[in-house]
Specification:
The structure is a single chain. The chain is about 70% helix and about 0% strand. It is mainly α. It has a single domain, classed as MetI-like fold.
């Protein structure tokens, strides 16, 4: 009887360990060990929500954010315009909210394409090695030698007029995504290659090869899954750098074209009014800073958590 009672008590204690309980415990542990990463994750979630459901953050619709009202131009922050208005009387806060969609689409779109390309190039190059690897690396050397910003300006200028609108993504945004993806795929493929070179010498790869597994199966089933942690960490860092590159292009006038809201273009348009209306540059610049910082902090936290050599240091 006592044994049955003890069994029931153990069951009553173990019952609350549900998925929600484990998730909350893991979240609390992540916040405790990586506070800066948790703060970065919070801002990332807010930015993604701002891009997905902008109407929840501003009462103005997308067409209202583009509506000009010359009578209200260059107003400072107020109750009716939280971040003031620009030189055409448009609400700055609404333009920042709807501009978040542009930054998030470019950031995540770049990550998907660039990481798929760099993983494929780095894995194939590192696995086959020899002359195949040498040929690939010479092509990568040529791409890495090109000045990044000059390449982006040239690529966007050539691709933008030829890109059609796909769903809700404009042609100029798609051109930026492809250009930044090519640049980042070339630069990050070497990291994947260096890890693939070491993984191809592991015993489980030799065992799979001895059992008759094809090269494609070895790469897809044994090498690529072991690259996941490296790809995930670099992807989180790449989102921030992609947002910064898009802002740089828009600031120079080669990015997202008006009237579509973009943080970089808002900075470009604010240059003429820095003394009269500094809020036009402060708020979009602050959003760019927070976005890049958040993704970098999240990437650092993921690196520390996923890298076995660093787990014991926190």
């Amino acid at each position: 009887m006592a044994t049955a009672q003890q069994t029931l008590e153990r069951g009553a204690v173990a019952a609350p360990q549900t998925f929600a309980g484990k998730a909350s415990k893991s979240t609390l542990r992540f916040i405790t060990r990586y506070p800066l990463g948790a703060i970065g994750l919070f801002f990332v979630v807010v930015l993604v929500a701002m891009a997905a459901i902008p109407w929840a953050f501003t009462p103005l619709a997308a067409q209202d954010a583009l509506k000009q009202n010359i009578m209200d131009r260059l107003q400072g922050p107020s109750a009716s315009h939280w971040m003031g208005t620009d030189d055409l009387g448009r609400d700055v806060w609404a333009r920042i909210v709807y501009g978040a969609r542009t930054s998030i689409i470019i950031g995540f779109g770049t990550v998907i394409i660039a990481k798929a390309g760099s993983t494929a190039i780095g894995t194939v190059s590192g696995y086959y090695s020899g002359w195949f690897d040498s040929l690939f690396q010479r092509v990568i050397d040529i791409g890495a030698a090109l000045p990044g910003l000059v390449f982006l300006i040239l690529a966007v200028t050539v691709l933008a007029p030829r890109m059609p609108d796909v769903a809700f993504i404009q042609g100029d945004i798609l051109a930026i995504i492809l250009s930044v993806s090519i640049l980042n795929a070339v630069n990050s493929s070497r990291t994947v290659r260096s890890v693939a070179l070491s993984l191809r010498e592991e015993q489980y790869v030799d065992a799979a090869r001895s059992l008759g597994a094809t090269n494609m199966r070895i790469m897809t089933r044994h090498i690529v899954p072991n690259l996941f942690s490296i790809v995930l960490v670099s992807a989180s860092l790449l989102v921030g750098s992609s947002v910064l590159l898009e802002s740089s292009l828009s600031f120079l006038g080669y990015g997202v074209q008006p009237p579509a809201p973009s943080w970089g273009r808002m900075l470009n348009e604010a240059r003429e009014f820095l003394t009269r209306a500094p809020h036009l540059a402060i708020f979009p610049g602050l959003l760019i800073f927070v976005t890049v910082w958040s993704f970098n902090m999240l990437g650092d936290a993921l690196r520390d958590k996923l890298d076995p050599r660093l787990r014991g240091s926190n």
